[in-house]
Specification:
30% helix
Length: 444
Amino acid sequence: MARTIMILLLSLFSSQMISAQQSDQRIGELINTENWFALDKEYPILKDSMQVPFLKVVAEAMIARNFNQKERALECLNELLSNYQSDLGAGMFNFIILRAQLLEEMGRYAEAADFVKNVLDQLKGQGITEGLDAMEYFNQHVNAIREFPELNLSRPNHDVSVPFALKELKPKRIESWMRKKDERNPDAKSILMSVPVTFHGETIPFHFDTGAGMTFVSEKFVREKGLPLVGDSVTYTGNSKGLRTFIDSLQIGEITVRNIIAGVGLEDESEFLDLVGVGPILGRDVIAAIGETQICMNDSTILFPIETSPLPASGRNLLYNSHVEATAAGESLRFLFDTGNASNNACYLYAAYYNTHREAINKVATTDTISGGGYGSAGAREMKVVRPFCLSIGNMPIQLVEAVVDEESTLTDDHCHGNIGIAAVLQHRKTILNFRDMFIKFEK
């Protein structure tokens, strides 16, 4: 379940802005199409032959930003906004928001709020009032948390191991849209992975969710634990609203994570999560801060190693937003690696995939009524189903009973082709998720 506030970077470069040189054209194309995996591989090869200086800085900023090198990304953004405003043109607004988002992710909340406010004041002073909604929203959003300290953690100088549990989700009550017997995929189950997390001396199972941009709790949890509510409501997924809270500390084994700004699901938006018994969610904010996670199926443990695994020879295949590079039928794709996707033997294909494979899918797909949901949405609707579907991540094959074509998903952007979750984890002895060197690796 993707639970992050995202303001998408728009295409920045028209053909007039890109040098006629082949290298500049290629890098500009990769930036415009947000093909970050190809940019990461091709930019080091092409950069010495590039002719447009600011395009180099943009490329380096976007590589650093998407591969979780926040300090380097901030350096590049500072250079762009200081030295290349005329080259950026209207795209400068997007880099202003991107810089503010980075500051927020780094826990520099007051700096992010002041930066955006200063920009807004300057623009309004010049008589510019149109097109400022995103900046106004972000300023309000981050100003509400300006006084909170940044997220940090402490851990012992050795590996930390915690048990995990696989829980089959079974509804507390059966709604009408759940009643259809699933004969298409009779072995299908909905399974989530939970880990024991200690909050103020109480051990609580938190669902381990790489697709959630932030740690997430319910409004009921906030009331019962006496947590504060922070600011006004914010948008999480599509039109779904929620609140935020501040959690002073959580313990995962011997690791203590402090100062977590967590999402809060409103009760009237959380019907599906409550219906199937999903509790608090440990999100990517905490998972990435720890650095590396190894999900070990043999003994049902999660290992947080003190020494992270070496980068595979194939290179980086993971973006900061949990998008992973996958391959299907020889084609390079981008999937959200989402352990909150509870299907044990299926994946989802999004509109970005369907729109470029429409004819092939329509030839082989069946249409069925699919039940499911997440925060803010639940129900059943007709969707296309492709059976079987195979892909690979890091040269490791993943065989799936089916792929459900979800053209209406609100969990991703136009450059993400699908969503795969617990099904991939269940097929491998070990799953290594590394947010330092940015890779996912499976071991048989």
